[in-house]
Here is the input.
Amino acid sequence: MNNNRLLLDDLFRREQSRLVRGSLFDSTPPTLPDDLDWGRVEGMMLGLAIGDALGNTTEGKLHNERQRLHGEIRDYLPNRYAAGGVPSDDTQLTFWTLEQLLSDDGLDAGHLAERFCAQPIYGIGSAVKEFVSNYQSGMRPWHRCAAHSAGNGALMRIAPVLIPHLRSGSASLWADTVLAAIVTHNDAASTSACLAWVYMLWCLLGMSEPPDPLWWPETYVALARGLEGEGCLVPRGGAYQEYRGPLWRFVAEYVAPAYRQGLSVREAGDSWYSGAFLLETVPSVLYILMCHGHDPEEALVRAVNDTKDNDTIAAIVDSAVGALHGVNRLPARWLHGLTGRTAADDDGRISGLLGQAREVFATLQRCQ
Here is the structure.
């Protein structure tokens, strides 16, 4: 058992992780093909950056205002920072995570916490801001600094945690996922969502064709149910304001029925208010993938145009379609127009990090 699994077990014993210790922690990830294409990993990571960049210039706008100003968004919008797609916190924190994984040859959550506080974060969310304030004020150890928040700020950046595990596929992946998540968000809904999502991304990397639409909510619920427990989340808006319960049950009760009713992404998103609260984000992500996961471009266009927290929802959606379809199925114009920044003037940085990751974490037996 590695040090991260020991640390997580200690946090469970001391009840400092707001999570149920489910059976997932005693299981290994599903077996991936020996000839796994590294382009699937690149698709996952670059898809996330593309989704963030396509959405961040209109983040938080209502549908009608976005439509009036821009029509249907299918390309990067003009911005004052660069001629192309520029990042917000989604891309920054994701690729800073990858950078730190490379530096440490795996996850050191204390170093990751320090890295998140080293540079300005664009569009920083309230929970991450609370974490940064706590950490910079000297609060230690690092896992005391996280906000108790069910926002989407941990889920949006969790994907790269699986990359070092492509070499071995051990149960340590689950401990690393938890520790990386609770750097900023120590909440059962957030951490269970991160675990379920990492499991799903891992599965997608090994799939030869898109899954059945019901795979998305059913797999999420099957994983999160035994990890989140029976929390009590309360909707902020939409059609289900009487709901009181955990995120996994909300997904179980409302996402598949919306699909059976044939609701559009916008109609479904409006019904649960597609914002940055996980009770809004996770149903939106799963619903878009149910409807459009077979079509990388349409999945992202719908995420960018038809949701409120559109940069983060698009980033999460496109990490999934990138993992499923690979980098070559992402529209070339989006790849070419991406600045690849993680800061104000480091164009191309994300490509450099992905190149390093391939050298360090891919193997001839696993990723070609």
Remarks:
- The chain has one domain: 34-361.
- Residues 34-361 form a domain with the ADP-ribosylglycohydrolase fold fold (CATH 1.10.4080.10).
